[in-house]
Sequence to fold (334 residues):
Amino acid sequence: MIGFADVIVDLQAGDTGKGKVAHALCKTGDYTHVIRYNGGGNAGHTIYHNGKKFVTHFIPVGVMYGIKSIIGPGCVVNVKSLFDEIQVLEEGGINVSDYLMIDKRVNIIQEKHKEEDSKDSTIGTTKTGNGPAYRDKYYRQGLRAENEPKLQEFICDIYEELHLKGPVSVLFEGAQGFELDVDWGDYPYVTSSHCTVGGAVLNGVPPQKIRNVYGIAKAYRTYVGAKHFEGDSEYFEMIRKEGGEFGATTGRSRQINWLDIQDLIKAANINGVSHLIINKIDVLEKVGVFKLIDNGIEYTFKSTKEMMDHIDDQLTIYTDSLYDVKFSTTPFDI
Fold:
């Protein structure tokens, strides 16, 4: 029986610090399960745990705290990469095997999917095979985890785990971001899964069980992919270096642009965000510039507080359910 579920959703184009938020929320002891609800090896969450740096691609961060951690049916998994990730985590002192679970419905990224994805030259994918794997899933030709012999020790039925045992409390850990959502993103420059709170619900939780929706953004925007995204400013290279804006999966330089407040409001409203966390405000402080875009107009502010007040005011006016906004610095703590 599900008591409640909280959802972490990225409100931009990924790389906003969702993994850090999930890691911090796991410390509260509120959750019996952490569920990764979308994506696959194309996402990387950089996490510092007990003084060590880890980059996860498939495995929910709950394993770091001994919490049951499920790769949900909305995900796709590369078997070899998954076992490589398990090895790295366990060599770092984390007990993965006792807590990792994989829903039987998860689809497998096969070598043919990676080979096909490696030829992409238009979207700018991470070439991990996600898109072709999702295509085969919806074409009803995919290979499911329940039929992959190497995964049998981890296989579960997420329905039985969440609804027939309990009570349970769930933290949903998302991947990619709203601006990459297959429906709501800048199509065709999108990912192949649902990056919204709806994507979490598709993993077997009734909508009325959703308690908090943690929307995550940065004080500026970044994007990795083939389309032209970066604005025209001498500050962007400084932001890239100061913010360490290089992809956790590919190492590619992230394109930079100013925060667009109207896009943020749209993402917050569609996802029903209750708690908004805006990360890396300290990067702008170090660079010494405070700018954002609002209705196509570039605004320059004199201080962090002035910029934060503007964001807070606009969100208060135009969002439906938001009641908590937090501005966070890179040494992350909620």
The chain has a mean pLDDT of 93. The chain has two domains: 2-216, 218-327.
